[in-house]
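Our preliminary data section would be incomplete without showing what the modeling component actually yields. Below, a chain of 100 amino acids is followed by its predicted structure, encoded as tokens that our downstream tools consume directly.
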Amino acid sequence: IEVCVAEWTTGTRIEMHFYKECYAAVFESYHKMLIKFDKGTKHADILPKICKRLLRHACHHANVPEDPIRVGGTSDNFLTDDFAAAAAEWDGHVESDDEY
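Predicted structure:
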């Protein structure tokens, strides 16, 4: 999130590279704050409600169902041929950090 905010600071996106070494301390800091917040507000169940709300918004904006199993997205929908085709597509594929 820090990198995304930094990319848009000027109002126009300027691509930045993410290096876990640079942001590990930031992540740890946020993670510790979330743990403290969750413990301090456990009685009100606030953090799980925030997480569910974020998930609903993310699914809505990504145009994916919130509950893929409810709408038929179970593993039963995949056939052995589907797995073989996926494996063949990725066979020999080389990913780079710049790909996405």
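Helices lie at 2-7, 20-40, 46-62, 80-90. The mean pLDDT is 79. Preliminary results of this kind motivate Aim 1 of the renewal.
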